[in-house]
Amino acid sequence: MGRSDAHGPAALRAEDGLDLVEVFSWWTAPGEAEALQALVDVHQERYPNARVFNAAAASGETARQTLDFRLTHGQPPDLFQGNAHVMMDFLASNPGSLVPLDDLFKELGLHDAVFEEIIEGVRIDDVIVTMPVNRHRENVLFYNADLLAVRGLSPPKNVDELLTVCEALRADGITPIVTSHEGWILRIMFNSIAMGSMGARPFAEYHLGIRPADDPAMREAIDLFAYILQHYTNPDAGEPGFGWTTAAQALHNGDAAMFFHGDWARGYLAELGWIPDIDFGEIGAPGASDMFWYAIDYFAIPVGAANEQGARNFLATVASVNGQLAFNQRKGSSVIRMDIPRDMLDPAGRAAIDALRAANVTMRVRGQQSWDDAFAQFARDRDRKALLDAYVTHPASQLD
Fold first, then answer.
1. Is 97:265 a contact under the CB 8 Å cutoff?
2. What percent of the chain has pLDDT over 90?
3. pLDDT higher than 80, residue 59
4. How far is CA 119 from CA 39, 96, 124, 131, in A?
5. What CATH number is associated with residue 255?
6. Secondary structure of residue 398 in the 3-state scheme
């Protein structure tokens, strides 16, 4: 999928009869890369002359900056990856930059096949502007099954149990929770702790603007987060290059017992050779397991794409039953289609659908760059007022 410059888009487009689609995706970590390749394989079965080139495969941490440069300098790829919870911010900065997809949804019959809340997540001003790829649950606690079991510890069901388990692990010389000081990773961890502290419904009400931005419960959640970050997390979380995959690796190696993250970490752990429910387990956020807090990944076609039809063909593969199964079973996410028979899903896919249906509160992730920046700063200075001020100054209600 990824190629050197000598075999890049220009060279590939020159090959007779080749339908090249240039995709910009930072899914390059184990689990992610295999999921994207599985999707590409399905696409090339459907379109034998198609070739998919991931222009971001070698970009690493600069992928997003490279994409921004290309989009603002009239050099768009045919497709690029994004997250629905920041789509509004993207379009505010880049109005009219995405090709509408309402006609493609109608052509593929997706209004009757895709969960309505997923469609709403990629619709802006009554126009569908991106193709959803998956649904990722972000309020997940992963745990090393052996580290807990040999100490007679059970996965925590609420915040009090979480603190008890953390204290027992620390007393035994084990890092209770592994994390990274990257802002978006800390935001994911904080959300799980906050919803467990506040309760699922108050947490949702806070993000809907029903509760004030400086709600006392939010202040208490920040205090709890600060305590956990100070006493129960790994001291190397702020080292350069320590990201979510490093954290997942630490969990796998037994260097830490628990990890708050999105369910895509499951795909990574599986690629490391771990077996779900044997080597590792995952539960909803302690104290808020009845909440399904989810993100939507998407692909979008930028205006000016060199191969818009090829991009549309790829999006048709993304939305297809086979494309959904191939991708999500490797990625750790759940499918966007509600018409896929249960027996076609893998155990993790069935568990995700069951958790979604059992949830008392289901809500799309809210996130802003200003919050992520504030969390990264908080990791350095532990300024609780400044972290709260980031939510007060940029309230979640403005995302509606």
1. no
2. 84
3. no
4. 20, 19, 10, 9
5. 3.40.190.10
6. helix
3-state DSSP assignment of residue 242: coil
Same domain for 162 and 243 = yes
| Residues 157 and 73 reside in one and the same domain | no
Count of Cβ atoms closer than 10 Å to residue 62 Cβ: 12
Q: Which residue type sits at 289?
A: S
pLDDT at 64: 81
pLDDT at 32 over 60: yes
Closest by CA to 27, choosing from 292, 298, 251, is 298
**Distance between CA atoms of 356 and 363, rounded to whole angstroms?**
10
Question: Of the candidates 17, 25, 127, which has an alpha carbon nearest to the alpha carbon of residue 82?
Answer: 25
Q: Does residue 311 sit in the same domain as residue 281?
A: no
Count of positions (residues) in the chain = 400
Would you state the pLDDT for residue 208? 94
At 336 the pLDDT is 97
Distance separating alpha carbons of residues 128 and 257, to the nearest angstrom: 41
319 assigned to some structural domain = yes
Q: How confident is the model at residue 134 (pLDDT cuts 50, 70, 90)?
A: very high
Q: Are 192 and 139 in contact (CB under 8 A)?
A: yes
What is the 8-class DSSP label of residue 342?
G
Based on the fold, state whether residues 252 and 395 are members of the same structural domain: yes
> Same domain, yes or no, for 264 and 388?
yes
Distance, in Å, from the CA atom of 196 to the CA atom of 202, rounded to the nearest integer, reads: 10
The side-by-side arrangement of strands in the sheet containing 175-177 is: 175-177, 256-261, 140-144, 280-284
Largest CA distance in the chain: 66
Is residue 362 a part of any domain in this protein?
no
Residue ranges making up the domain that contains 104: 5-135+296-357
- Identify the bridge partners of residue 82 per DSSP, sorted by sequence position: 298
Q: How confident is the model at residue 17 (pLDDT cuts 50, 70, 90)?
A: low
In whole angstroms, give the CA distance from residue 135 to residue 297.
7
Asked whether the beta carbons of 146 and 279 are under 8 A apart, the reply is yes
- Total domains, the chain: 2
Please give the sequence-ordered ranges of beta strands (E in DSSP) within 156-284, or none if there are none.
175-177, 256-261, 280-284
Q: Rounded to the nearest 5°, which phi and psi values hold at 49?
A: -90, 0
Rounded to whole angstroms, the Cα distance separating 235 from 252 reads 17
Q: What tokens were used for 316?
A: 């048709």
